[in-house]
Design a protein that fits this description.
Elements (H helix, E strand, L loop, with lengths): L21 E3 L15 H33 L2 H12 L1 E3 L1 H4 L6 H8 L7 H23 L1
Parallel strand pairs: 1-2
Length: about 140
């Protein structure tokens, strides 16, 4: 590569994966309504409306005018930006802390060349399932 910078999506798992997926830090996509709010339904309605308007009107203009034309100006990077943008999502396991220390343990092991994840996952399976069940009960 001879460019100073570039935009690349996270790689696909393999060729059979139909599209790219880009996980954002869940904190970037989180709204909170304080429990002391006297009208939480009104606050939620306002946040929902603001999110809709941002997605429908502001993001496309921001990406098109500011990022694409003034920031990138490179057709390949613009194409990559759209691949990333079209695959945005949140890892709910991270957002709701379902994995406990498992994610961090995997991230710590990779640079050390440790690839025996099966036993690590097996050790963490019961607490993760317990957390998932507790979360599901709250949603019900």
């Amino acid at each position: 590569m001879e460019d100073e910078f570039g935009v690349l999506p996270l790689p696909k798992y393999n060729e059979s994966q139909s599209r790219y997926f880009t996980t954002l830090d869940f904190q970037m996509m989180t709204f909170a309504i304080p429990y002391t709010q006297s009208a939480p339904e009104d606050a939620a309605l306002l946040l929902d409306a603001m999110s809709f308007e941002t997605n429908e009107k502001i993001l496309d203009v921001f990406l098109g005018n500011r990022i694409e034309q003034k920031g990138l100006r490179n057709e390949d990077s613009i194409e990559m930006l759209h691949i990333v943008y079209d695959g945005l999502g949140i890892d709910l396991g991270e957002a709701f802390d379902l994995f406990g220390t498992l994610s961090q343990s995997i991230k710590d092991n990779i640079p050390q060349g440790i690839s025996d994840f099966a036993s690590l996952i097996e050790r963490n399976k019961k607490p993760i399932v317990k957390q998932m069940n507790k979360l599901q009960e709250k949603f019900e």
